[in-house]
Amino acid sequence: MSDNREQAARNGGPAGPGSGRTRVRPRPARRIRWDDPTTIWRIVIQVLFLAVIVAVGAFFYRNMTESLRSLGLTFNFRWLKLQAGFGISEGIAYDLTDTYGRAFVVGIVNTVKVVFFGIVFASVIGLVGGLARLSSNWLVRALATVYVEVFRNTPLLLQLLFWYGAVILKLPPVRQAVNLFDRVFLSQRGAYIPRFMLVEDIGGWRVFFIAAMAVSVAVYFYRRRQLMLQDRPGFPSVWALASFVVLMAGGWLVLGSPVTVDLPVLQRFNFEGGLQLTPEFTALLLGLSVYTGAFIAEVVRGGIQAVDKGQREAALALGLRPFHVQYLVIIPQALRIIVPPLTSQYLNLAKNSSLAVAIGYPELFNIGTTTMNQSGQTIPVFLVIIACYLSLSLLTSLFMNWWNRRLAYVQ
Amino acid sequence: MAATAPAPRAAVRVRPKDPWPRRTVDWLVKNLFSSWFNTLLTLVSLWVIYFTVTRVWRWATETAVWAVIPANFQLFLVGVYPRDQLWRFHVILGVFAVLTALSVAAALNRDFGRKAMRWLVTPWLLFLPGSMFLLWGLPGSETLPHVQTSSWGGLTLTLVLAAVGIAGSLPIGILLALGRRSSLPVISVFSTFFIETVRGTPLVAIIFMAHLMVPIFLPGVTIDRVIRAMIGLTLFTSAYMAENVRGGLQSIPKGQYEAAQALGMSPALTMILVILPQALRSVLPSIVGQFISLFKDTSLVAIIGLMDLLGIARSITANPAWAGLQAETFLFIAIIYWIFCFALSYGSRRLERMLGLERPS
After folding, report:
1. Residue B14: which residues within 8 A CB-CB, separation 6 or more?
2. Going edge to edge, which strands form the sheet with A184-187?
3. Residues 269-288 in B contacting A (C-alpha not used; CB under 8 Å)
4. Is A153's CB within 8 Å of B337's CB?
5. Range of the structural domain that residue A371 is part of
6. Residues A165 and A282 in one domain
7. Average pLDDT of A5-18?
């Protein structure tokens, strides 16, 4: 689980250790020199090391095959094609007669779903929390500090069990559901939220949408060029967004709404319509976002504080407005410091989603343990689980590294 | 005379002190109502605090059944450890208190502090194995009967798991860090592969793996459930520890290696006597951070059915006598976890300042 506190704590430090990116080790072209006695030693040591690893591996492998034989199993991946025969409470289409492989796909999709929304919510919470910790308002600062210290210093598993067992399952039954503006309902059976659906006849809108996109892109480049010519700071993307919104609003008046909203409505026994979020999903999403948000708040705060004070003073001296100072000078520089530790927080969130096994949300790890119990294939199932998590981590860090390179300081 | 006395005092004071209502009002205006936006934030915050506090207060005083805490207090602390053997905890706690008091005294005293610290290192190193031995007992002994780890539980088990995890992961982590920086490709590839695989895998998976696969890899040997959990936690933490140590190693300037070489030290001696002591000192705060993380992460052993603090809490809420008291129970153990973690992180910050490792800001 590994909430890498030191990463967050040290993000202001010189050349963060642990982030291999900053290390540049020039490698001179080496030729193997056979006349050097150390060369022989180096080879001998490596051969010995390899021999020990192989011996230990062989010992374990022999033991493993023996244990498996006594259990009447063999090491293979054929079980992926066998019928799973257990139910999965939520997710994409799945049937009892589907294979274990299909069950894994359902689990992966559920994991990706909760990780994606978790990252979005945790980032928003973390950004707000981090800015609040730097607020000039004493009360806001105190509230943010309490939030961060409470949630960072208690175990995530405990928080998940608390949200699930002590909050969500203790909500009133469906008939007395907590009503938020007739749009969102909270009950023991989870959260009911409005569902947005595209209208059937989307043809006219599609053309209009593409046209609006084209116009706003044109506005973006026009405005950027204008600002560059006048040598003024500004936000061309805000202009583009505004023109897009205006055009879409115009389209709304002419063509009517492109989406229909399906609201949950209380019927005799349950809600109909809308989108139901199961108690497990709601608790997991809430727990992951609130927990990771506290860590991200510290990352954001550290990043902003690490920007040199002279930068703000210089920007103000140049006559930039406070808003421009914040968004054109401070935040771009802070982002550069924030992104590496933020990446490790996102990775932690992805890995921590496996704690859902304790509250019964059918994500990857949960499906994996069920498969293990049903098929008895402990080791191959573990290999599949680990391979899935490693590729999820790899994809996330590839994306974040790409973003980090984009932000990097160009001399 | 009495009338002239205050005059020079007033002259010395550059600005006369405002009467307190004025000061309070100034503070309020500056910190809470400096602009319309700030005023709005203050009002919203006040509303949030009022809403939360009244709700929680009403729940805590009217609805909550706090009897579950005192009734199970001993379970929370020591699990189902035999009641007639509780003196062992008193001994361990006593030794811990004495060692802590001596260390604090040594840290505060400038004259003999350093020397005393050196004397205290050995007792501290022996403290963990000694306590483990005392909890374990001697098989077949009358006075100190063996206590199975299945009866270890509660806060004790949590602390034991965290302490063993950090103590075990430090040497492995140092070896892995050195291995990763090694110029021998086989060793560095192996270390990197181990570190990155473990860091990319969730801890639950590793604990499960240790729980299920150790018996498969070592058939015929029955390894205790608690020890299997310790293996999992140690392997997991050592990968993170390796990265911490590597950070420390990278922060050592090249001049240190060159100076040691100029003095005629062999590479191994350089590492042991010059580089590692400095590197470990500089990463001490992150090792404490790792310990805090591990302390929280030990709660995951509840998933494989161990009775640590969280495991005990879960089993109490599953007990029909205390059914439906999740909020009270979890809140109570959350406070215990919080106190430990907060105290550790506070101590770590103090340590950072003491060692002069504060990052420049």
Report:
1. none
2. A178-180, A184-187, A190-193, A275-277
3. 283, 285-286
4. yes
5. 5-18+80-194+263-407
6. yes
7. 39
- Note the pLDDT tens digit of each residue in B17-63: 667 777 888 888 777 777 788 888 889 999 999 999 999 999 888 88
Write the residue in B202, B283, B300 that is nearest to A389 by C-beta: B202
Same domain for A188 and A208, yes or no, is no
Assembly ipTM: 0.85
Q: What confidence tens digit (pLDDT) does each residue in B124-140 have?
A: 888 888 888 888 888 77
Is there a domain that residue A36 lies in?
A: no
Give the pLDDT confidence of A45-67 residue by residue, as tens digits: 889 999 999 999 999 888 888 88
Q: Which two tokens stand for residue B208?
A: 């499960």
A270 shares a domain with A358 = yes
Q: Which of A66, A305, A352 sits opposite B202 (nearest CB)?
A: A352
* Contact yes or no for A389 and B209 at CB 8 A: no
How many domains is chain A partitioned into structurally?
Answer: 2
d(CA B183, CA A28): 13
Domains with residue ranges and CATH for chain B: 153-354 (1.10.3720.10)
Token pair belonging to A200: 């059937």
How far apart are alpha carbons A193 and A2 in whole angstroms? 33
**Domain assignment present for A386:** yes
Chains A, B: CB contacts within 8 A come to 208
Residues in chain A within 8 Å Cβ distance of B345: 5, 153
In a domain, A158, yes or no: yes
- pLDDT-wise least confident of A216-225, B75-84, B91-100, B104-113: B104-113
Residues A379 and A296 in one domain: yes
Higher local confidence (pLDDT), A107 or A258: A107
